[in-house]
Amino acid sequence: MSEPSRLELLHFTRRVVMQQATAALRQIDRWIAAEERREAERRLGEEKRPPPPAWLLQYG
Asked: In angstroms, rounded to a whole number, what is the distance separating the alpha carbons of residues 27 and 35?
């Protein structure tokens, strides 16, 4: 079996880098989706929060 040529090694390296970059982008997309869900939940919580009372009790 002969050693791979420089061109074959470069093609192999490119495939490895593409796989790693694709995996990294998928991870970043998951982080973005999770953050967007948290932001939507926070906004929904703020929208559903009851308004402050029109009056205030003060003691003493």
From this structure: 12
HSE (CB half, 13 Å, CA atoms) of 26? 6
pLDDT in tens, 13-58: 999 999 999 999 999 999 999 999 999 999 999 999 999 888 888 8
Within the chain, strands assigned E span none
Cα separation, 17 vs 11, in Å, equals: 10
Q: What is the pTM of this model?
A: 0.70
Query: Exposed e or buried b for every residue in 1-38, given b needs 16+ CB within 10 A?
Result: eeeeeeeeeeeeeeeeeeeeeeeeeeeeeeeeeeeeee
Length of the chain: 60
